[in-house]
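Task: sequence design from structure.
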């Protein structure tokens, strides 16, 4: 299946613009920090998430978006792993695509 995934630079930009804090206003948890087992490493529990899905059949898919629009920063947000899963449950019906 073809997907319009974010590039690594777009994902990094979303994370940096959010200060590595989950963008869900009900959460706001820090998504990056030191690894527990090795003080020279970092851990990241954040994800660059599509507002409108990257592929047909995904949550909030918008057939009117172009591929470049789907994988651009305005169609993304930085979320922790928990919130990332939460917003896509039930095919995203509980969380709309309004910006």
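Answer:
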């Amino acid at each position: 299946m073809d997907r319009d995934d974010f590039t690594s630079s777009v994902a990094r930009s979303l994370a940096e613009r959010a200060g590595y804090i989950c963008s869900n206003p009900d959460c706001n948890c820090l998504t990056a920090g030191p690894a527990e087992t090795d003080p020279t490493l970092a851990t990241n529990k954040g994800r660059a998430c599509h507002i409108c899905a990257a592929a047909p059949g995904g949550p909030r898919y918008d057939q009117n978006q172009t591929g470049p629009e789907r994988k651009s920063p305005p169609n993304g947000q930085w979320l922790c792993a928990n919130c990332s899963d939460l917003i896509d449950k039930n095919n995203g019906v509980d969380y709309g695509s309004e910006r």
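The chain has three helices and four strands.
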